Amino acid sequence: MSVSQTLGGASRCGWVLGPSLDKIIKNVAWRKHSHLVSVCKSTLDKFESLVDASDPTSCSPLYGLSSSDGELLLQPLIMAVESGSPKVLEPALDCAFRLFSFGLIRGCEIKDNSSIIFRLIDSVCKCAALGDDAIELAVLKVLLSAVRSPCIYISGDCLVYIVKSCYNIYLGGHSGTVQICAKSVLAQMMIIVFTRVEQNSMLVDFKNVSVSELLEFADRNLNEGSSIHFAQNFINEIVESKDSPPDVKLSLDLQNGCNCLEEKADEGHGKSVDEAADLSGYSQIREDGFMLYKNLCKLSMKLSSQENPDDQILLRGKILSLELLNVIMGNAGPIWRTNERQEYDVSSEYLMCSSLTRFLSAVKQYLCLSLLKNSGLSVMTVFQLLCAILWNLLSKFRSGLKSEIGIFFPMLILRVLENVLQPSFLQKMTVLSLLEKISHDSQIIVDTFVNYDCDVEAPNIFERSPPGSITSLSPAQDMTFRHESVKCLVRIIKSMGSWMDQQLKVGELSPSKFSDNENLTETPTYPIDDTNIVDYELHSEANSEFSNAASLEQRRAYKLEIQKGVALFNRKPSKGIEFLISTKKVGSS
């Protein structure tokens, strides 16, 4: 047995805590921190008599030890973190990181200061205020390892506290490297939390955040030499940390954890566990994900005060929130796309929305409001992030957000393409980049035409999407814009052609169904009874039913004539009314 292991006795936790406490004793100023030295020494003596229990209790904060022993042995670590001495903090924070990474710190639900684990996390968060780069990086390591660990469930206020602490490190970091690492840690936390939300489980596989992709829109100027490479290695080291003392299990006894949550659901609704799960989605994992998502949306909506309209810290916090929301939306899975429905619990007379619908409702209620409030800002980074989020909504959520997309697409995209308020060259190029992404998915193009251009009550999005001209550009910018515009148009046409070829190959489309309709407004049309119109939603499955192709042509022609009548009415009401009556769009009485 090595010397480092003998310092902590025979227990697994002692193998990690023992050498760290010994290093703390050697580094600390004995006169100033005599009590800390005394507690560390008594703890080392305590380890000599401890061995791992054959049947470890799930209630203990330290694996293999009793609850009382676990709390007692974590006290010197908390005291060391609270000491404020950099020489003491270095081994203390490293010890906390290893305890979380190795799965030696355990807990069913850590959400308030009644838990000693919360007190440990609280002390770690507070020491970041010292402003030392090395300490801030060590704090980020501990916090991410705590959120990552499947052996401890960080919930409620504790989770929010951790996220806010990382925010503060990002906003107050003195070096670009620390700021990039803080942003990367936050993004990785979002991936971990919402991957668990998707699967409703702590034991999930998740991907590592790409730091270079994360910095696509903001903070490129923070790159100090190899900061991006350093931050990527920093994240990988924490997420992939698998070294541990022999025989340490890193898996959580989820059965005990689930029982704790089930008991709470049972108490809250007076129902059985199964009924509570079906009706309210009692899962604390999903409840915490919903709360975190809502808070991020609210942070992204904060506006500068009249006294300080150029508040750069608030703006950076807003941009960071939008970046994290973009990460969440970019990795969103099926749970976010569940159509909204409500279930009624007769016995408790309580109307509850299924937990699986709350996330789509959150997108409508909070994210869309954030897009609306931020759309008027003239900050280029904000505009780019709004376009990136809109792309995620369009590519993943269009089946449930038809009306919302019908508002935001014209507000963000068409307004730029149609030169409203003289958009800048960068705004134009950002929109072209979004259209390029759309052109790679032919189904989005078809869905857009069917659900907007063929819907009388929706705006014409497909018709207005091709890029137009732009004024006030330098010759080089004008050449670049024209070149990219033509490329974008070509890609859209090719994508539509590929889609047609694909449908013809699988035999779902008959060429006879498509006659020459170059001018739909001149084709004889008639008012269409709403009961005979297929209610097309933004579903790729719906648009594969080409038996309704004729109905689509009628709907498009009907809308064009309505628009023509409205345009005539706006110029000369009598002519507009005469046209609408002649085409049977309105009655003659």
Automatic annotation (TrEMBL):
- Could you tell me the superkingdom of the organism this chain comes from? Eukaryota
Under Gene Ontology molecular function, one entry of this record is: guanyl-nucleotide exchange factor activity
Pfam family name, one: Sec7-like_HUS
Does Protein transport show up as a keyword for this record? yes
One GO cellular-component annotation of the UniProt record comes to: trans-Golgi network
Q: Which Gene3D superfamilies match?
A: 1.10.220.20
Domain Mon2/Sec7/BIG1-like HUS positions: 286-461
Which keywords belong to this entry?
Guanine-nucleotide releasing factor, Protein transport, Transport
GO BP terms, alphabetized? protein transport
Every copy of the Mon2/Sec7/BIG1-like dimerisation and cyclophilin-binding domain together lies at: 21-200
What name does the UniProt record give this protein? Brefeldin A-inhibited guanine nucleotide-exchange protein 1
